Amino acid sequence: MLRDPAKAEIWRKRGCDIAFADMGDATQLAAAFKGATGVFILPPSEFDPAPGYPEAAKQNEVLTTALLAARPERVVCLSTIGADAEMDNLLSQRTLLEEALGELDLPVTFLRPGWFMENADWDVASARDEGVLHSFLQPADKSFAMVATQDIGRVAADLIREQWIGKCVVELEGPARVSPNDLANAFASVLGHPVRVEIVPRESWEGLFRAQGMRNPQPRMRMLDGFNEGWIDFKADRGNRTRGTTPLEQVVEALVRQAMASEIV
After folding, report:
1. What would the mean pLDDT of 214-234 be, rounded to a whole number?
2. CA distances from 225 to 20, 27, 146 (A)
3. Greatest pairwise CA separation for the chain in angstroms
4. Which superkingdom is the protein from (predicted)?
């Protein structure tokens, strides 16, 4: 399912059927979903939401309307670690999504991945040019659940081919937990020079985020608090967790290579 017809040919050559739809149009989505055995939903992210998350509420209404009209056999929805957190934060948008889709009389699996390893793309320039990794995750030796996006794609593809009833939650993290120090060491190994962690002080976050153009930075700040304070994490007693296989250094190497290639172009 695409928005841009110019991108269709590469998928047709791979044997895909093509549908065009906008994520904000329930009628278009329902037409695209019609007749599908399974639907994978990767909802757009809003990193600077208005108070109360009206953008997420509108998107959830569109998705539920389309799914009820098309009634596919099953749905896999990309959610997130922290969708079950009790305190409000940026990831609460996915909490609302799970609540909306959870009310449908359709089989739905919510795939909850950890922090994307590819978020380290923001650190490539400073690690390469300054030997510094500026970390909002803290302290530097605290390990977090992270996963590579290619592992997310692979697990989602596996899930959508399975059959299940009711509602399921699958948690996904990488082969090992990752600290800011681990991330700096991965950059150092790939770049061939030392990289150290500099913690970004909590009191500076709001000013930094507003300088970047954010109007409502509190949800993002509370999300970071959740990771740092431990109330955004996978529960230790959860039995439906799986692990990806892609190591951190492989992801960092690809990010550095991609950055270098874009600069050459």
Report:
1. 98
2. 39, 39, 16
3. 56
4. Bacteria
